[in-house]
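Work Package 4 report. The design task specified in the project plan requires that, given a folded chain encoded as C-alpha cells, an amino acid be chosen for each position. We show below one input record used in the internal validation round.
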C-alpha cells in the first residue's frame, strides 16, 4: 500500500513511478525508459498478465525467472565502478562491498540501510576534517590579495581576526569552541571572516551564541565579514545576528578593519 501511494504521489513532484522492485526499474531504464510512459506501459502489462494470463504465468518455472533476475542483477552491477572506487577512495569501496555482501546474505533493505548509515558516518567525518576555525594573521592568511585578505595589511591593536572555513555543524562545534576560547586575553574587537562557511547547524549556532554573549558582557565588539546566505539566515532566525548587531556585518575584511580601527 505504501509503494502504491508513493507511485500515485511522486508524479505530482516530477518523479517517474516505475515499480517498487529495483530489478524491474533497472531493466526498464536500461532498455531506454525516459518518461512516465515507461511506468504506464509496465503497469498496463502487469494488469494484463494478472487479468488474462495468470494461469499461463504460473506455469513459468522459478528457475527461469531466477535466471532472468540474475542476468538483470549482473547488468545492474556496473562492474567498472569496482575498479574506479578501488583506485580512488578505498573507504567508498568498503561501503559498497559491505552493502553488496549484506544484500546477498540478507536482503536489499538491510544492505541499502547499512550502506546508507556507513556513508553518512563517513561524510560527517570528512566534513569535520574540512571544517576549522583559527586565529588569522597577515602571515598565515592563505588568501594573498583582495579585500578579504590580511596580507600586507595592519590589524589595529586589540583586534583579533578569526578565519572560519567549511561547514560548521555538530561534529565541528568543538573546533569553534576551542578556537574562540584559546584566543587569549581580552580583545576590544574580533573579526569573523565567514566567506567560506556554506552552512551552520543548531549546535554551531549555540556555541557561537555562548561566545557572543560572553564577548558582549566583556564589551568586545564583533564584526562578521562575507557571510553566506544560509549562515546569515540561521543567525538571523536564532537571534544571534541581533546579539552581534546587524550593523556589524561587513561586506569584506577591509571594511571590518576600518570600523574596528575607528571604534
Amino acid at each position: 500500500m505504501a509503494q502504491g501511494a508513493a507511485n500515485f504521489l511522486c508524479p505530482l513532484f516530477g518523479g517517474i513511478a516505475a515499480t517498487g522492485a529495483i530489478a524491474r526499474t533497472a531493466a526498464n531504464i536500461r532498455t531506454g525508459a525516459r518518461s512516465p510512459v515507461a511506468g504506464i506501459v509496465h503497469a498496463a502489462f502487469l494488469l494484463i498478465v494478472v487479468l488474462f494470463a495468470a494461469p499461463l504465468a504460473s506455469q513459468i518455472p522459478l528457475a527461469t525467472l531466477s535466471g532472468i533476475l540474475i542476468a538483470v542483477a549482473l547488468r545492474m552491477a556496473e562492474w567498472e565502478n569496482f575498479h574506479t572506487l578501488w583506485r580512488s577512495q578505498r573507504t567508498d569501496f568498503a561501503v559498497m562491498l559491505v552493502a553488496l555482501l549484506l544484500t546477498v546474505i540478507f536482503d536489499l533493505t538491510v544492505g541499502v540501510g547499512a550502506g546508507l548509515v556507513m556513508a553518512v558516518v563517513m561524510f560527517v567525518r570528512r566534513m569535520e576534517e574540512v571544517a576549522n576555525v583559527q586565529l588569522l594573521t597577515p602571515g598565515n592568511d592563505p588568501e594573498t590579495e583582495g579585500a578579504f585578505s590580511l596580507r600586507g595589511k595592519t590589524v589595529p591593536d586589540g583586534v583579533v581576526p578569526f578565519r572560519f572555513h567549511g561547514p560548521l555543524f555538530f561534529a565541528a562545534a568543538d573546533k569553534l569552541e576551542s578556537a574562540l576560547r584559546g584566543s587569549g586575553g581580552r580583545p576590544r574587537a574580533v573579526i569573523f571572516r565567514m566567506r567560506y562557511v556554506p552552512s551552520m547547524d543548531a549546535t554551531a549556532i549555540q556555541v557561537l551564541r555562548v561566545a557572543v554573549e560572553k564577548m558582549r558582557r566583556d564589551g568586545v565588539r564583533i564584526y562578521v565579514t562575507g557571510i553566506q546566505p544560509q549562515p546569515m539566515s540561521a543567525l538571523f532566525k536564532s537571534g544571534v545576528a541581533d546579539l552581534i548587531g546587524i550593523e556589524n556585518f561587513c561586506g569584506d575584511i577591509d571594511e571590518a578593519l576600518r570600523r574596528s580601527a575607528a571604534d
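The mean pLDDT is 85. Validation will be extended to a larger panel in the next phase.
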